[in-house]
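Journal club prep — side note

Before the paper discussion, L.F. wants everyone to see what a predicted structure for a comparable chain looks like in token form. Sequence:
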Amino acid sequence: MGGDVERVVLAAAEAGTLRDLGERTLPALARVARASSAFLYRYDDDGALVPIAGDLGDVIGEYTEHYLHGDPVHEIPSRLVAQPRVVLATRVVDRRAYERSAAYGEFYRTHGLDHVACAWLTGVPYATPGMIGMMFARPRTRGDFDVDDQRRLGRALPALTAAAARAARLRDVDLRHEALEALAGAAGPARLVLAARARVVWASPACEQRLGSALNALPDVLTAAAQRLFAAARGRATMPARLAVAIPTATGPIAAQLSLIRTASDAPLVLVELAPATAAMELHDLARTFGLTPAETVVLGELARGLRNAAIAGRLGVSIETVRTHVRRVLAKLGVRTRVEAAVIATERAQRE
């Protein structure tokens, strides 16, 4: 038994979520408590009981719907201070009231849950949002839980409460992440955030949809531009505040703007913002119609915004001569003489769309 307790403590220390806690610790805890059934649950933000792990998940809905509020075991926590603890529920309950209840006759006894012990892992009042607990049960033939079972579970309780608190914090992080995704998906351009070595640390749903498999192996042009910005962040290069690139995809190039951002701890990240889908499609159609390269497509997009060569060079991180070369080739392919005419073609296409 002592070895099982130690394994529970080690597994709880590694758990990052409640599901981890259930999968890694609940079977060993059931052995510690000599239980035939075990169950990990939490109460969600609406105060509803949510099964996390264990072998009672399929029947707990029946209990909460029909028996929860008339169950003498359920009334025990109202008499106790809300804090982490192990309670031998069927030893402290009025046994006669328990066995006369519908909860016992129609639920506990039917499912072989005659004897119950509980481990409450939070200081939140029982059955309120955020409360996390475990239930252990035995059939009548196995006898009730005793103080030795309570002591063994109590040895694991600090590790379990720490894991529950950690899971709650990580859940809040997940909620913030989901909120950011919802905001990013609701308005604004599709966004991608890169960490050092051009690792993807976050992508908005719209970005995932538009880049597809390109997110699994970033195109070299995007990786190279990000690395140049990271080099500038480390003081190893002088770069403009933003870079523009054309990301090649199966459906054509997508114009993107890259810029440096910093976290609260001053760690550099690269924010990638994709051009609106309509603009990207228009440029893609022009590129396909006139045979423009990805670099020439980006330059045409910048021309359409009215930028001069020096500004375009700054945004692309290339020399002015390179931009002049791209401009000459764009004009030739479009069959026009001036950059204004090229911009008109691009903007007229956009207006027709």
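L.F.'s comment for the group: The first strand starts at residue 37 and ends at 43. Keep this in mind when we get to the figures.
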